[in-house]
Each structure stands twice: as structure tokens, then as C-alpha cells.
Design a protein that fits this description.
434 Repressor (Amino-terminal Domain), 222 residues, Umud Fragment, subunit A, elongated, alpha+beta, 27% strand
């Protein structure tokens, strides 16, 4: 395939049924995008990067046809994670099916991975505000995470990034921080491995998702 053929394939595989929808999502004039996709117009490097991000395609594949089409370093940010005080799962956080936004991270991510954004500084200097914590699929097998830092959720719905320590009784855990008092004998609903940490300057925002869309819909219905 030529470059414009790969662009069209990437657009269709990303779920955009029309070139017009893709152009609107990327933020380029329809005539510009249409010319790129039908081969009538050359594609600049910065334009190709925009398309690669929007369609979750490998930049190298779009440019040359080499390697795999898809990328596996895009991950959805589900919400905030408290590394100090608790973070209420309120209006700024979505359910398991939604993302606040998506990011590209410089490492491959496993199947079922999700991400949370750090808020608070009780784990400084290990973690900084705005860092992205990439987590493995949630698990109820808490004992295997004893002694390790993990994302944990309490029955009340609060989320923390803490070191998980066995509590004084079965089913209870102590949540330790680097520079804050531990939370002792806390019940935990589920926990997740910290698969990777992407420092605040090193992740790239990929796309806004349903949070902004839901906000617009709610405003237009009033």
C-alpha cells in the first residue's frame, strides 16, 4: 500500500466511517485530509504524527509500511489516584467503561491495563503530582501484593497509591506512604500492580473521551 492507502486503512480501523469525521477529530480542514487520503496531496511529518495519534497507529508504519500497524502503548486514564489523603470517586471520575482521557506512554502496556493520574505529594520524592501510574488488571488476590506498592480501592470507593502491608486481622491492611502517616487496618476491595510510572513531562495526551462528551450533552439538555 502507498502512504495514503495506509492512512485510509488506519482511519477505518480506528472506527471513523468517513474522512469528514476523521478530519473533525484531528482538527484539520476536510479538504486537506481528503487530499491526504486520496493521494492528491503530500503529507507533512507533523500532519502524519497527528494522524498516528488520532488513529492509534504506528508512525513508522504510516510513513513507510514497516512494522506493525497498531500501537500498544496507548492507555486510558480512569481518574485520579490519592497518594496522600483519599480521593473521592465523584463527578471527575468515570466508571470502568470510560476514560477521562487517553495517553501515549513510552512503554508497551499489557492487556487490561489502565492508568490513573497522581494527586497529592505524600509519596514524594518517589512520585510527583501529574505522574501517570500504569496499572495491571485489577485483582482480588491481595496477598501476592503484600510488601509492594499498589493501587488499592476501599469499599467506600476511595483509591490510593500505597505500600500494602498485612493488617492486624485477616482482610485488613495497612497502607504505607513515604512521608505521611500510615492508614492502619483498612479493608481493601481490590488492588492492582504498578506496572509502570510515567513521569509528568513524559506522557503525551492522546484524546479526550467520554467525560467531555458527557459534559457537553448535559449542558445542551438543560
Amino acid at each position: 500500500m502507498d502512504k495514503h492507502d495506509r492512512l485510509k486503512k488506519a482511519r477505518i480501523d480506528a472506527g471513523f466511517r468517513s474522512a469528514a469525521a476523521a478530519a473533525e477529530r484531528v482538527g484539520v480542514p476536510y479538504g486537506t485530509y481528503s487530499g491526504h487520503e486520496n493521494g492528491g496531496r503530500g503529507i507533512k511529518d507533523d500532519e502524519l504524527k497527528l494522524y498516528a495519534k488520532a488513529f492509534k497507529a504506528s508512525l513508522a508504519w504510516l510513513a513507510t509500511g514497516e512494522g506493525e500497524q497498531g500501537i500498544n502503548n496507548a492507555v486510558g486514564v480512569k481518574g485520579l489516584i490519592g497518594v496522600g489523603g483519599s480521593i473521592e470517586t465523584g463527578s471527575e471520575q468515570l466508571d470502568a467503561e470510560g476514560n477521562i482521557f487517553e495517553v501515549l506512554v513510552p512503554v508497551p502496556v499489557p492487556q487490561g491495563a489502565f492508568a490513573l493520574q497522581v494527586k497529592g505529594d505524600s509519596m514524594w520524592p518517589r512520585y510527583d503530582p501529574e505522574d501517570i501510574i500504569v496499572c495491571s488488571k485489577p485483582s482480588n488476590d491481595l496477598l501476592r501484593l503484600i510488601g509492594w506498592e499498589a493501587v488499592v480501592t476501599t469499599p467506600e470507593g476511595n483509591r490510593y497509591l500505597k505500600r500494602l502491608v498485612q493488617g492486624s486481622a485477616p482482610g485488613l491492611f495497612t497502607l504505607e506512604s513515604h512521608n505521611a502517616a500510615p492508614l492502619r487496618d483498612v479493608p481493601v476491595s481490590w488492588a492492582s500492580d504498578v506496572y509502570a510510572v510515567v513521569r509528568a513531562p513524559h506522557w503525551q495526551r492522546l484524546a479526550e473521551t467520554s467525560l467531555r462528551q458527557q459534559t457537553r450533552k448535559a449542558g445542551s439538555s438543560k
